[in-house]
Structure of Putative endonuclease:
Amino acid sequence: MQLALDFSAPRPASRPASRPTPPPAPLQASLPTGMDRRRLVGRRSLHRGAAAETQALRRYLARGWRLEARNWRAERVHGGGELDLILWRDGWYAFVEVKARRSLDEAAGAVTPAQFRRLDLASQRFLNLRGADFADRRFDLAICDQWGRMEILENAFA
């Protein structure tokens, strides 16, 4: 049996639908825009930063450092800086700033002089509250790229 189709024949008129069909939603409507997009990017950055902090902390703990505080904030009247990791070993405090960016170079360049001043003031306040004003201290920078590679720059701000 052979089927013959005649495409040149006039098409029968279609009946109007009882309900109009809405046009399909454009693809862009499902993507976040404006404030929602900023929240999404901010949340992603927050999680990336927390993962980098955890990775840095594990490295320090493996080297015998003891965690004293994580994400410690000084009061605003004392500079208001936040110290990502505060570690102690053999009479030394290490104040670690963790930066996660697309590349290690971007992360290394992410600490401004103003931010370092805030970190310095916050570290002084932390030591003051511990009664360890004259303790030996250093500032390390732990940098992480988008693939999870990490480098720790000891005494980075000397």
The CA atoms of residues 124 and 130 lie 10 Å apart.
